[in-house]
Amino acid sequence: MDTAATAGVQPNKSLAFRISSALRRDLTSGVFRAGDKLPSESALTREYSVSRTVVREAIAILRADGLVEARKGAGVFALDVKAAVEQPFQDLNIERISSVIELLELRTVFEVEAAGLAASRRSATQIEAIVEAHRVVTDCLAAGAPTRDADFHFHLTIAQATQNKRFPEFLRLIRTGIIPRGDLQGSPPGSRPKDYNLHLREEHAQIVDAIIEGDPELARSHMRAHLKGSLERYRVLLRSQSTGASAASV
User: Fold this and answer.
1) Number of domains observed in the structure of the chain
2) Which of 33, 168, 220, 231 has the CB geometry, 3.0–4.6 Å to 116, for a possible disulfide?
3) What's the average model confidence in pLDDT over 191-215?
4) Which is higher by pLDDT, 114 or 98?
5) Residues 77 and 122 in one domain
6) Is 33 within the bounds of a domain?
7) Residues 223, 124 within the same domain
8) Does residue 242 lie in a domain region?
């Protein structure tokens, strides 16, 4: 039985990924260095006993990952692998309050506008999803359960209601650090700073109400206040830790 077909993957796609993986290993191991020309399309079809279509698909995968570039009439050339593998936000360290602050500053710019667009464009189904996501966060708070995943989903439903797929894509890109870790303040891992949670339900409710009412400016205002409050609470924490460290070194 064809494994690729069983898994729901087209055979050509499976072969293309297999070839791209082999070439990727050569690129990352130094067989091909930046500026080197890869074997020609015809050479690769002979080497792997596949069609030109499969080879082109494999090269397209490598191009999408920034590992190679095709030069018209010249062939395919290796790019700087180190630059290609450095993905955005890879150096984000959510164990550090300073990293959390950096991300909250970015989110303030991004999510304030997302809230406004959601208030303007949301569908009835998306309103229901936002309300349900808010309810789940509220239930977690009432039960004393971690809110990290529920909180992310709440913000994701708002991003989805913008009707612009790039908003939820970006939110997923920074998902690792989007919800600050509770153990930054000595709380159990996976939970949130207690003082943050005290404000969470009310701030979320205001955002939800503004989106339901279809008021973009009010939605932006409440989202801005929500993220600004989070930002200020972590700035206070950072200052207190800095003060404590200075006192300890005296």
Assistant:
1) 2
2) 220
3) 82
4) 114
5) no
6) yes
7) yes
8) no
Which residues are within 8 A (CB) of 38 and not within 5 positions of it... i.e. 6 or more apart? 23, 32, 44, 59, 68, 75, 76, 77, 78
**Locate tokens 């304030």: which residue?**
112
> Which amino acid would we find at residue 68?
V
Q: Is the pLDDT of residue 125 over 50?
A: yes
pLDDT of 39-61, one tens digit each? 999 999 999 999 999 999 899 88
Determine the Cα–Cα distance for residues 235 and 180; give it in Å rounded to an integer.
13
Pick from 240, 242, 237, 234: which is nearest to 107 by CA?
Answer: 234
48 to 19, 51, 54, 109, 152: CA distances (angstroms): 8, 9, 10, 48, 44
pTM score of the predicted model? 0.59
Q: Residue 148's pLDDT is what?
A: 79
Q: List the domain range (segments joined by +) for residue 156.
A: 97-233
Q: Same domain, yes or no, for 180 and 213?
A: yes
Find the DSSP H helices in 122-174.
124-143, 148-160, 166-173
Cα separation, 97 vs 235, whole angstroms: 8
Whether the predicted pLDDT of 244 surpasses 80: no
The CATH number given to whatever domain includes residue 20 is 1.10.10.10
The pLDDT-based confidence of 119 (bands split at 50, 70, 90) is very high
